[in-house]
Structure formats: C-alpha cells, structure tokens
Design brief:
The protein has 55 residues and is an all-alpha fold. It contains one helix and no strands. Keywords: Membrane, Transmembrane, Transmembrane helix.
Length: 55
C-alpha cells in the first residue's frame, strides 16, 4: 500500500488546525458562560432564622 506523502501531511496539518481552533473556541465559550453565570447568580443571604429549629 502506497501513501501519497504530501497529501497525508496536508490532511494532518488541516486536522491539527481544526482541533486547535475548536479547543480555543471552547475555552472562550467556557469563560463567557462562567462570567454570565457568575453575573446572574444572586448571592444567598444567610439568616439565623433560616433553619427551623423549633420543636
């Protein structure tokens, strides 16, 4: 079986570029989602009377 070396190298380079772009975009989306969730999250207030301790 004979492989065409230039074509194989080109395919490998294209695949590596696609993988790098996808990883970069995923990291960017992850940061944006984290910032959005942190901005939307309302911090809970802790009150002593939150827990029902009466019998």
């Amino acid at each position: 079986m004979h492989f065409n070396l230039p074509v194989t190298i080109l395919v490998i380079i294209v695949l590596l570029i696609i993988i790098i772009v996808l990883v970069y975009k995923n990291q960017k989306d992850k940061k944006e989602l984290e910032q959005k969730l942190n901005a939307d999250y309302e911090k809970q207030k802790h009150h002593e009377d939150d827990v029902d301790t009466t019998i």
